[in-house]
Amino acid sequence: MSRPFLNRRQLWLLIILLPGVILLLSLLGPLPGGQDLQISEDRRLYQMRQSREDYQLQLLLPLPAPDTAERWLVNRLLPDVMKQRLSTPEAQQWLQQQQWQIVSSNSDTEWQLLIQTSAPPDNEQLRSLLQHLTAPVDMDWTQRVNTSLATRYLNLHTPDEAALAALQPGTFPRPWQVTPASLLDEWVTSERLLMTLQTPEFLPLTAPAVPDAKTGPATTVTATPLPSADPAGQGVLHHWRWSAPADLEGLARTQLALACVQEQLSLISQGNFRLRWRAWHGFADLDLLLQQTALKPEQLLSCPDQDRYDQLRQQLAEYWEGRLAADASTWLLLLARHRLPAETPDRLVSQLEQLPRSDIQQHLQRLAGSDTYRRLNFLPVTEDPHAPSQ
Question: In which domain of life is the source organism classified (predicted)?
């Protein structure tokens, strides 16, 4: 007969010590390597397990970059349409039945819906929610289009906005015939809608397919956009389109590159510049508005000297370390927006601390000469610098 793997004394010690080991591990918190993150295979649903009693579900719907008149209109109208859908009596009654607390918001690049609930959401609730978010709405499309165009006209009479608007290819047709409902329906798709969940335990959820949106009757609106204001003053506008980071190292490289560009501009332009950074889903736009017309792209996209670079790198690492420690949802949203694999926040900080100046300098110089670069002369300047958005 073979001997037992553990004798009686060893078994007794294991029984005594095991609860203490389990307690110690629970107090130490999540282990490194992303074990407290769960990501669906299609990377549309990101779950983060936390020590909490409620559930926080967030929906992210990217807005299109306003590269054309039609995409500009979707960017302007879609947040209002989503808000209208959530305000219908049917949607309000359903939300009350679920006992969900919701807040919708949007930026230039994304629409968000935040849901707080004390009970775990299930797949049937997610499917019903998407039904409400794609339901028909009763809207006066002529009034909506004309209001959006009037707001654009007023905004373009500020010098900076008139200059930045010149980046849009072509002009708005006059008259302009457009069918808003059809444009909006084409944009709301399963591939674009993302979900994140902060939860006390992982849930057996999947991001459901988005039903075919039916915004409303395909009414064609005929509008006459007001003429844009001509930019006044002397200056130059530089524009680049950057690819989205494919991994955590790419995300760290992008953050450091932006910090270097802002520092470089402060040194060579005496603070008289505007930097606009808009991170769309899949790519980002960098716009620099300057008074100096002689500066070349490779001078603008460059790193400061080694000592200042080391300071910037350390400051950025400390910033992200503090921010991510204070708000776990920031990390979850960051991963979801870029559809990155499960990683822990300390990995981003580690990447920031390790990237050498030569790496960032080469990266910026490649971007400076990329095919996406555009330069527009004789544009106005601003007196106040603006930091890039997150």
Answer: Bacteria
The two three-digit tokens of residue 162, written as one number? 């008139």
CB 283 within 8 A of CB 241: yes
230 DSSP assignment: P
CATH number of the domain at 236-377, please? Answer: 3.30.830.10
What are the residue boundaries of the structural domains of the chain, listed by start?
37-140+176-223, 236-377
Single-letter code of the amino acid located at 319: Y
Cβ neighbours of residue 343 closer than 8 Å, sequence gap 6 or more: 34, 37, 248, 335
pLDDT given for residue 48 in this prediction: 96
Give the tens place of pLDDT for each residue, 299-314.
Answer: 999 999 999 999 999 9
Determine phi and psi for 227, rounding to 5 degrees: -65, 145
Q: What is the 3-state secondary structure (H, E, C) of 108-162?
A: CCEEEEEEEECCCCCHHHHHHHHHHHCCCCCCCHHHHHHHHHHHHHHHCCCHHHH
CATH of 37-140+176-223, one of 3.40.50, 3.30.160, 3.30.830, 3.30.2420: 3.30.830
Q: Which two tokens stand for residue 149?
A: 């165009």
3-state class of 26 per DSSP?
A: helix
Cis peptide before 62 (omega within 30 of 0): no
Closest by CA position to 188, among listed 82, 271, 33 = 82
Res 33: pLDDT: 39
Q: Beginning with the edge strand found earlier in the chain, give each strand of the sheet holding 45-49 in spatial order.
A: 37-39, 45-49, 194-199, 55-62, 110-117, 101-106
| Residue that the structure tokens 């069918």 belong to | 179
Question: Which pLDDT belongs to residue 389?
Answer: 38
pTM to 2 decimals? 0.84
Under DSSP, is residue 102 helix (H, G, I), strand (E, B) or coil? strand
Would you say 265 and 275 are in contact if contact means Cβ atoms under 8 Å apart? yes
Closest by Cα among 138, 139, 57 to 90: 138
Q: How far apart are CA 123 and CA 78, in angstroms?
A: 25
DSSP per-residue codes, 318-335: HHHHHHHHH-HHHHHHHH
Question: What pLDDT sits at residue 7?
Answer: 54
Least Cα distance to 328 among 189, 130, 196 occurs for 196
d(CA 8, CA 14) in angstroms, rounded, equals: 10
